[in-house]
Amino acid sequence: MFLKEFEIRWNDLDANRHLANITFLSYASETRMAFMQKMGMSHAYLKKLAIGPIVFNEHLFYFKEVLPDDTIRVSFELAAMSKEGTFFEFEHNYYNKEGENVARCEMMGGWMNLKTRKLTGLPEDMLNEFKSSYKTDSFKEITSKDTRRWNKEPKNLIK
């Protein structure tokens, strides 16, 4: 598993003086981008390909408080991916200094062509990198149908 370490800063805390919800999400994002950077998928590389990752949803589960002056390690593992790489699910686990799993973030997203603004599959080299990356024990192949499993629809304002 890929791990990235963070020191808890004052501005990472909420009013209860423990790690803020938004910080958990920020750490997950930083970790997955660090993983992609390690795989050679830098901002410049993604810009050249005119593709970018987009988030469909993120779910946070909390097990134990994270307090000031602590350090936390955040993992990256691939939990699911579609055959062509268009859709993916990442799992991030958060560990304290003692190695206790204090939280988990499950995230689903896809890849967007930045010129057409439509979902796209991955180029073969990127697809192969993800296929050979760190995976959860429950890794599975998904389809576009899986992106709708929460059954959520927009509720527009009517004037």
Précis, in short:
This protein is α+β, with helices and mostly antiparallel strands. The protein has three helices and seven strands.
Can you offer a commentary on this structure?
The chain has one domain (2-140): Thiol Ester Dehydrase, Chain A (Roll). It has helices at residues 21-38, 43-49, 124-131; strands at residues 2-7, 51-62, 71-82, 87-95, 101-113, 118-119, 135-142. With 159 residues, the protein is α+β, with helices and mostly antiparallel strands. The mean pLDDT is 95.
Major sheet characteristics: 7 strands, mixed
Helix and strand string, N-terminal first? EHHEEEEEHE
Number of helices, counting only DSSP H or I runs of 4 residues or more: 3
> Which architecture does the CATH hierarchy give at level 2?
Roll
Structural class based on helices, strands and sheet pairing: alpha+beta
Fraction of residues in H or I helices: 10-25%
How many structural domains does the protein architecture include? Answer: 1
Number of strands: 7
Overall morphology = globular
Rg, alpha carbons: 17 Å
Poorly predicted spans: none
N-to-C CA distance: 50 Å
Strand content: 35-45%
CATH class term: Alpha Beta
CATH topology group = Thiol Ester Dehydrase, Chain A
Mean pLDDT: 95
CATH H level, superfamily name: Hotdog Thioesterase
